[in-house]
Amino acid sequence: MRRAIYPGTFDPITNGHLDIIKRACSMFDEIIVAVAASEAKKPMFTLEQRIQMAQDASKEFPKITVIGFDKLLVDLSDDLDANIVVRGLRAVSDFEYELQMGYANASLKKELETIYLMPSLQHAFVSSSVVRAILAYDGKVDHLLPETTYRMIREYRK
Q1: pLDDT (tens digit, 9 = 90+) per residue, 100-126?
Q2: Which of 20, 21, 41, 143 could form a disulfide with 88 if both were Cys (CB 3.0 to 4.6 A apart)?
Q3: Separation of alpha carbons 22 and 18, rounded Å
């Protein structure tokens, strides 16, 4: 069985994330969407809310399991018996950061492979930080998010 981990903060999960999940599902038997606690990033949504958003947004994909985590990715990969990490790359600015993280993880666990997937062009500009910036001014974000995520955010913000 080929199992991969798709880690991230997913604050919130976007259509771009779902695009990567869909692509990864065609490559692997199981994808574990690992929602990082990432308290240092001061997420807009709680870990529990982000896990729920990811679960609801990805429920149409039977190969997906969503979990939360608060440890090194290499330790999580040991716990899950998964040596493949999936990451999304939107732009050159993502590449440098992702390359550093991939090398850092490989230095801690040589068996851990990172693969990079580009989202489709329609989602290339979508990021959680863009969504949060728009949300801060009560702007329109429904076209950037899965419908379930958009509904949850509206509920959380009441």
Answers
A1: 999 999 999 999 999 999 888 888 888
A2: 20
A3: 6
147 in Cβ contact with 115 (< 8 Å): no
pLDDT in tens, 16-72: 999 999 999 999 999 999 999 988 889 999 999 999 999 999 999 999 999 999 999
Q: What is the CATH number of the domain that holds 67?
A: 3.40.50.620
Contact 76, 34 (CB under 8 A): yes
Residue whose pair of structure tokens reads 């076209």 in the numeric block: 143
pTM summary value: 0.94
Catalytic residues: 17, 41, 90, 128
- Whether the Cβ atoms of residue 98 and residue 116 lie closer than 8 Å to each other: yes
Looking up tokens 């969503």, which residue turns up?
A: 66
Identify the DSSP state of 6.
Answer: E
From the CB of residue 155, how many other CB atoms can be counted at a distance below 10 Å? 9
- The first and second tokens of residue 101, run together, are 């993280």
Beta-strand relationship, 113-117 and 3-8: unpaired
Structural domains counted in the chain: 1
Q: Which domain holds residue 109?
A: 3-156
Q: Which two tokens stand for residue 140?
A: 């329109």
